[in-house]
Design a protein that fits this description.
Blueprint (H helix, E strand, L loop, with lengths): L8 H25 L2 H8 L5 H47 L9 H6 L1 H10 L4 E10 L1 H27 L4 E6 L2 E8 L2 H15 L3 E3 L2 E3 L2 E9 L6 H18 L4 E3 L2 H22 L4 E9 L5 E11 L5 E2 L1 H10 L3 H16 L7 E5 L2 H4 L4 H12 L6 E6 L7 H13 L3 E7 L7 H5 L4 E4 L1 H6 L4 H16 L3 E4 L5 H9 L4 E3 L9 H9 L4 H6 L3 H7 L1
Parallel strand pairs: 6-7, 9-11, 11-12, 12-13, 13-14, 14-15, 15-16
Antiparallel strand pairs: 1-3, 1-6, 2-3, 4-5, 8-9, 8-16, 9-10
Helix pairs in contact: 1-3, 11-13, 13-14
C-alpha cells in the first residue's frame, strides 16, 4: 500500500527521556543494593571493579533494549492502524463518488450478489431500481460554469439523500443517478419516483443565482422484470430514455415491450460488429452546392449499411449503437480512410466533409490519427472539412476544443453541424472559429410556413455574416425552399433537391457531368435545378 511512515521526532525524544530515566533509576538501585554480591556467592569473589561495571552495563543495556522494544511495538501498532485507515479510505474512494460523496456504480454493482440472493430466498420481496437523469443540467452548467455545475450536482445528491433517506442513492456519473428501493407494492416505486421529480423541479441556488432543472426517471422492478441487478439497471435506463422522449420531467415504468427493443438492439449490435469486421458498411456521398453558380463544391460522406437480406439499417440507429457499444472509432476510421481515398480521385477543388462523433472528440490523440490517415491516403488537409454537432461539447468540452484547435492548426476546416437543434450556446462560437455553420433542415423546411421561424433563420444568417462565417442550409428539397435560402443570402446548400447520398461511382459521374437517363433518375445535375428555379 505504500512505504512505512518515518518515526516522528516526538516519539524519539520520548524514547530518550524514558531510557535515561530508567538508566538513572536502575543505576541508583544497583549502587545501593549491590545485587552482584549474590553473584559473588555463586561464582566466587568478584571484587574486580571492571567486572562489576560490566555487569551493571549489561543489566542497564537489557533494560534499555526492553524499553526500546516496547516503544517500537507501540509505534508499529500506530503505523499499522494508520495504514489500515489509509486502506479503508482507498476502499471508500473506489466505492463512492468524491464530488457528491454518494455511493458510485461500482458500489451498486457490488450489491448484486447479496440482492439476488435475497430475492431467491424471499421471492415475494420487491425491489425497485430507479435510473434518474437530470433535465436541463447542460444549460445551467453553461450559465454558472463548471464549478457551479459541480455545486449543483452536490445539492442534487443532498436532496436525493434527504428524499430517499430510507433507501440507497447512487451517482453513476455525469448527471446520472440511481436509487435502489425496497418497496411493498409496485405502485409505491412509481409514487416515490413522481415525488422525486417534483422535488427536483424546485429551484436550486448556485452562486447567488436561482436555477431550475428537472429529472426523468425510469423504473424496473425486481423480481417482476428480472432477478438480475445488471438487467434491472439496463431496463430502468431504457425506461428513463422513454420518459425523456415522451416528456421531460416524467417517470416511466419498464414494460416487456421495451425488453423486445433491447433484444433487437442486441441483435443489431452483434451484426454491426460482424459488418465492421467484414467491411460491409460503405460510404455514400451527398453533394453540397454553390447556390449562386450551381457548382459542386464537395461531398459529405455518409455511412450506409445494407444487410445480406437487403434490409437497410438507418444510420440514426446503427451509429448510435456503435457509439454506445464502443465500436464507433473502428467504424469511423474505416469509413474515413475509404472516403479520403475516394476524394483523392476528385478534382483538387472538391472537398470532403466527414462527421465526427462526440466520443471520438474526447480522444486527445484523435487529431494525430486523422493527420496520419490523411498523409497515408494522400489527401491534403485543406480539402478536408470535419463536421461536429453541439452535443460534442456536452462532456469534457476542454478536450474537445483542444482537439479541434489542433485540427484547425493542421489546415483542416471545421463546421458546426445541426446548429440550433442541440445544446445551442453562443459560447461555442467564441471558443472555436468555425469555418461553416450548418443550419438544420428543420429551419429550412419551416421558415416558409412560419413568420417567426423565418425571423430566426434570418437572425442566424445575420450572425454568420457578422462573424464572417459561411452558413450552409441543409435539407433543401423544393425550389421554394431554395428561393427562400437564396433570399436570406445563403451561398451553399445541400439536400434532396440537388442529390441524394449515392455510391462512389455516381459521385464520379456527377463530377464528370455525365447526364444519362439513368443518372437523371438517381441524381439531377444541380445546375439544371438552379436554372429551373
Amino acid at each position: 500500500m505504500g512505504s512505512k511512515k518515518p518515526l516522528k521526532s516526538g516519539n524519539a525524544r520520548t524514547d530518550a527521556l524514558i531510557i535515561a530515566a530508567v538508566v538513572v533509576a536502575v543505576w541508583s538501585f544497583v549502587a545501593q543494593w549491590e545485587p552482584l554480591t549474590l553473584v559473588s556467592k555463586l561464582f566466587g569473589d568478584l571484587e574486580s571493579y571492571n567486572l562489576r561495571e560490566a555487569m551493571r552495563g549489561l543489566i542497564l543495556a537489557g533494560i534499555g533494549s526492553m524499553v526500546f522494544a516496547l516503544r517500537r511495538h507501540a509505534d508499529f501498532r500506530r503505523e499499522a492502524l494508520g495504514r489500515g485507515n489509509a486502506e479503508d479510505e482507498i476502499v471508500w474512494l473506489t466505492q463512492h463518488d468524491p464530488l457528491t460523496r454518494l455511493p458510485n456504480r461500482q458500489c451498486l454493482q457490488s450489491k448484486a450478489e447479496q440482492l439476488e440472493a435475497s430475492i431467491s430466498q424471499h421471492p415475494t420481496k420487491l425491489y425497485a431500481v430507479l435510473a434518474l437523469d437530470l433535465d436541463g443540467f447542460k444549460a445551467v452548467n453553461d450559465l454558472v460554469g463548471h464549478a457551479g455545475g459541480d455545486e449543483l450536482l452536490v445539492q442534487v445528491g443532498d436532496r436525493l439523500k434527504w428524499l430517499l433517506s430510507e433507501h440507497q442513492v447512487f451517482r453513476l456519473g455525469g448527471d446520472e443517478f440511481a436509487a435502489l428501493l425496497s418497496v411493498t407494492h409496485k405502485q409505491d416505486a412509481l409514487q416515490i419516483a413522481q415525488k422525486t421529480t417534483k422535488a427536483l423541479e424546485k429551484p436550486f441556488e448556485i452562486k447567488g443565482i436561482q436555477v431550475e432543472i428537472g429529472a426523468s426517471i425510469g423504473i424496473a422492478m425486481m423480481p417482476e422484470h428480472t432477478t438480475s441487478l445488471d438487467r434491472a439497471l439496463e431496463f430502468s435506463d431504457l425506461a428513463m430514455y422513454k420518459a425523456k422522449k415522451q416528456s421531460k420531467g416524467t417517470c416511466q415504468m419498464f414494460t416487456q415491450g421495451m425488453g423486445a427493443e433491447i433484444v433487437e438492439r442486441s441483435r443489431i449490435e452483434l451484426e454491426l460488429r460482424r459488418a465492421i469486421g467484414g467491411d460491409q458498411i460503405c460510404v455514400h456521398y451527398q453533394p453540397y452546392i454553390d447556390l449562386n453558380t450551381g457548382e459542386i463544391l464537395g461531398f459529405e460522406a455518409l455511412a450506409r449499411w445494407r444487410q445480406a437480406d437487403g434490409t437497410m439499417i438507418p444510420p440514426s440507429i446503427f451509429i448510435g449503437i456503435a457509439e454506445q457499444s464502443g465500436q464507433i472509432i473502428e467504424l469511423s476510421e474505416s469509413l474515413f480512410k475509404k472516403a479520403c481515398l475516394a476524394a483523392c480521385d476528385w478534382p483538387d477543388d472538391k472537398t470532403l466533409s466527414f462527421n465526427l462523433s462526440p466520443s471520438q472528440l474526447r480522444d486527445r490523440l484523435l487529431s494525430a490519427r486523422i493527420i496520419g490517415m490523411l498523409s497515408e491516403c494522400g489527401l491534403p488537409p485543406h480539402r478536408l472539412e470535419l463536421e461536429v454537432t453541439e452535443s460534442c461539447f456536452v462532456h469534457d468540452h476542454e478536450t474537445v476544443i483542444a482537439t479541434l484547435v489542433d485540427l484547425k492548426n493542421a489546415g483542416i476546416r471545421i463546421a458546426l453541424d445541426d446548429f440550433g437543434t442541440g445544446y445551442s450556446s453562443f459560447s461555442r462560437l467564441t471558443k472555436i472559429e468555425f469555418d461553416k455553420i450548418k443550419i438544420d433542415q428543420l429551419f429550412v423546411q419551416e421558415c416558409g410556413e412560419s413568420e417567426r421561424m423565418a425571423k430566426i433563420v434570418g437572425a442566424i444568417f445575420a450572425l454568420g455574416k457578422n462573424l464572417e462565417t459561411t452558413i450552409v442550409a441543409e435539407g433543401i428539397e423544393t425550389t421554394a425552399q431554395l428561393e427562400a435560402m437564396k433570399a436570406f443570402g445563403c451561398d451553399i446548400g445541400q439536400g434532396y433537391l440537388f442529390g441524394r447520398p449515392e455510391a462512389e461511382d455516381v459521385t464520379v459521374d456527377l463530377i464528370a457531368g455525365i447526364d444519362s437517363e439513368a443518372d437523371k433518375k438517381r441524381i439531377v445535375p444541380p445546375l439544371s435545378r438552379l436554372q429551373a428555379s
